[in-house]
Amino acid sequence: MPLVNVKVIEGVFSDAQKAEMVEKLTDVMVAIEGENLRSLTLVIIEEVKSGDWGVGGRQVTAAAAKALAADAPPG
Predict the structure, then answer these.
(1) Which of 2, 4, 16, 49 has CA atoms 20 to 30 A from the CA of 25?
(2) 9 with 48: CB under 8 angstroms?
(3) Do residues 19 and 27 touch, judged by C-beta distance below 8 A?
(4) Are 59 and 51 in contact, with CB atoms under 8 Å apart?
């Protein structure tokens, strides 16, 4: 049974966005493994406290992640 574990910074993603992650990640696994595994595919979203995440030797906060997303080009 597939297990997808996603870690995100707390407060960055809305409940609706997290639900979309669960749905789309499940769809990706089903596309690879087959429809029969849909009901057995587990997606866990873990939220890491703002500031407890680091990239390049620097702390990343929810506010910083949101600011980065706001500046991102449309994709």
Answers:
(1) 49
(2) yes
(3) no
(4) yes
Quick: pLDDT tens for 44-66. 999 999 999 999 999 999 998 89
Cα separation, 28 vs 17, in Å, equals 16
Chain segment 20-48, per-residue pLDDT in tens? 999 999 999 999 999 999 999 999 999 99
Q: Which residues of 22-58 are buried (b: 16+ CB within 10 A; e: fewer)?
A: beebbeebbeeeeeeeeeebebebebeebeebeeeee
Q: Which residues are bridge partners to 46 per DSSP? A: 7
Helix (H) or strand (E) holding 69: helix 62-71
CA dihedral of 61, 29, 37, 33, whole degrees rounded to 10: -150
